[in-house]
């Protein structure tokens, strides 16, 4: 059953009346917006900017506000969300991105979505309205609920309003493609990039073939122009400066979470990892025929595999845990990472068990 609450009072009534509920809006991550035996709550009515203070670099918006609307508003004032929120073009919303902890390549330099979320308003398991954090950038006493709700998947409460801090948009960007002889070579070059004072905004590994690193730099136009040639020269003939059009052919599909050889409906799992674990992971993914991409300087794997059981087993064997965004299979493939602390937090915020468990497989 799907309910369409038009406002917060109706949403509170629905939470109180139903046995178990799961919210959704944009459905750009379909594996997270459906489950058997629950009442689905369509929050698309919860859309719109509540407050925006360009001089304070903060805004507050309702939960189902599309990211593309936010991006357009911020751009009109020369501002942006530096963590490159994925799936903006596809219709992803603010609350959905927070609930699934969705951050793009820009997270490498500035941090992820949890670092820009400063306040939330939500409906708890008893159908009450609760607030956490604030609408301005300042220290606040009490629990840091905004960070707690990042990645909660609608399992701790239903977000209705969110406040973010934003940054001035960069004047210029420049991308460099670096061809690598092997994955170990790519890992070595990524490590070299990360150790320099070049202020790398984003660094992605495309396993290919050919294996390539895509690195993006930003700043004021004159300063960027004076250093980008030196950066490229440090990698020799393997490095190629890309035009804006050439760079967009790489970055745009990444924002839509479309890996080479896949489309917007292909299965997709994101897996936090580390640079030194990539060789073993890549070998295992190759053996099951999975398409993969390594984001955030090798700290996040994006994996597309039609064989969900094989991917689940592969991640379990490597003691890795993922989150399924598209396609059939367990929501959390790999090694379960639920903890006693998660259980206690869930019990405190949802004593009546209105929401799905955090450890839902």
Concise structural overview:
The chain has 361 residues and is of the alpha+beta class. It is built from eleven helices and 18 strands. Among the domains are: 123 residues, Uridine Diphospho-n-acetylenolpyruvylglucosamine Reductase, domain 3, CATH 3.30.465.10; 84 residues, 2-Layer Sandwich (Alpha-Beta Plaits).
Structure report:
By secondary structure, the chain is an alpha+beta fold. Among the domains are: about 45-170, Uridine Diphospho-n-acetylenolpyruvylglucosamine Reductase, domain 3, CATH 3.30.465; about 170-255, D-lactate dehydrogenase, cap domain, subdomain 1 (Alpha-Beta Plaits, 2-Layer Sandwich). It is about 30% helix and about 25% strand. The chain contains 11 helices and 18 strands. It has a 5-stranded antiparallel beta sheet with strand order 4-5-9-7-8. A hairpin with a 4-residue loop joins β16 and β17 (about 300-305). The mean pLDDT is about 90.
Secondary-structure map:
Blueprint lengths: L1 E2 L4 H10 L3 E4 L14 E4 L6 E5 L4 E5 L4 H9 L3 E2 L13 H6 L7 H4 L6 E7 L5 E5 L11 H5 L8 E8 L1 E2 L3 E9 L2 H13 L4 E7 L4 E9 L1 H13 L5 E4 L1 H12 L12 E5 L5 H10 L3 E5 L4 E5 L3 H10 L5 E4 L13 H10 L12
Parallel strand pairs: 1-3, 2-3
Antiparallel strand pairs: 4-5, 5-9, 6-10, 7-8, 7-9, 11-13, 11-14, 12-13, 15-17, 15-18, 16-17
